[in-house]
């Protein structure tokens, strides 16, 4: 780890210590314990599903695979890390890296699954639902107080310089994977081989990705969270959509690119270029004080312009938006908050923790906040040819160019996604 990154991380930990001390004082708490969580075994088996450390624990420690461990925070005291590290010849025990930040904690290596002794009035948060009832009772603490969790979610919404640096590095590592995926597509690989090329180039195993990579060829590019990898390459290559990420010190990159294949109609390649332009235009709109809902609505306005310019819709921009045409072509939100979780916390709450739900017309929108410096968001406009969404429009009198849509449908769809930090004066695109 570079000296600069450690300096930023130390400042990040000092920031957390101060913020937590204020929060504990405001709620008249003497200590707060954060449980890391643990993986669940598959039914009747001793193999577990993939695991991700509880976010507020990871906010301090920066390791995404710590299990059965506790972090105790007390005002004006060093954080106490109770790290579960049993003697085990079946698995390699958890080990802390040999990095300077470890010295900022008091480390307790625990061979057994133990809970810390909490001083005074205490609260515990984390993935605690599956802990034994006896463990929770022994802690004698308030469990999962909503006001505490919401306040810590709000703290995570605004990233420190250290967190921005980690997100930038996660993007750099993910981009290497995206370049390899594009090369594999050019080489006529199938979905599984494109996925393997991505993992190799981004230097990660599949269980370590921040979310299941979406590798969709042809019509699969129109399945928003496509979850399979065909083993064989299709005979015709119309399109590829790659929505894939990478972690760095717990922080997530979430990047999407779409490509026209050699068998795609020329109009599809033109639409891919147009969606890149739309993404760039929306990124330029990221700035402090901007409503993300308004930015999302701006996406629909510009998407209508693209539909008209490329002869998919032959009415007006206002008609395309008001009649739900753009929503049929793009049913998801413009983006979301990004951090230790891909869909990071606090996006649908006001700063005081009260709900800030998505608008009725845009129920899939995951972020309704006014942008502030320190936020990191994704900007991901899309344009898809999804039969179940377009079918209701076929029975309308709207001026839609159905022959062209039918010609483009084998291509599935387009999504272009960058990760963008909000700065004091505008934006910083973390996805070069």
UniProtKB/TrEMBL annotation:
Per UniProt, the cofactor note for this protein states: Binds 2 manganese ions per subunit.
Catalyzed reactions: Xaa-L-Pro dipeptide + H2O = an L-alpha-amino acid + L-proline
Per the UniProt entry, the Enzyme Commission number(s) are 3.4.13.9
**Stored InterPro entries:** Creatin/AminoP/Spt16_N, Creatinase/aminopeptidase-like, PepQ_N, Pept_M24, Peptidase_M24B_aminopep-P_CS, X-Pro_dipept-like, X_Pro_dipept
Q: Locate the Xaa-Pro dipeptidase N-terminal domain: which residues?
A: 10-152
- Give cofactor(s), names only: Mn(2+)
Is this entry keyworded Protease?
yes
Q: Does the keyword Manganese apply?
A: yes
Binding locations of Mn(2+) 1: 254, 336, 380, 417
Q: What GO MF terms are annotated?
A: proline dipeptidase activity
Q: Which keywords, in A-to-Z order, does the entry hold? A: Dipeptidase, Hydrolase, Manganese, Metal-binding, Metalloprotease, Protease
Q: Enumerate the residues binding Mn(2+) 2.
A: 243, 254, 417
Task: List the Pfam families hit by this protein, alphabetically.
Answer: PepQ_N (PF21216), Peptidase_M24 (PF00557)
Q: Domain of life of the organism in this record?
A: Bacteria
Q: Which family does it belong to?
A: Belongs to the peptidase M24B family. Bacterial-type prolidase subfamily.
Job of this protein: Splits dipeptides with a prolyl residue in the C-terminal position.
Q: What is this protein called?
A: Xaa-Pro dipeptidase
Q: Which organism is it from?
A: Halomonas casei
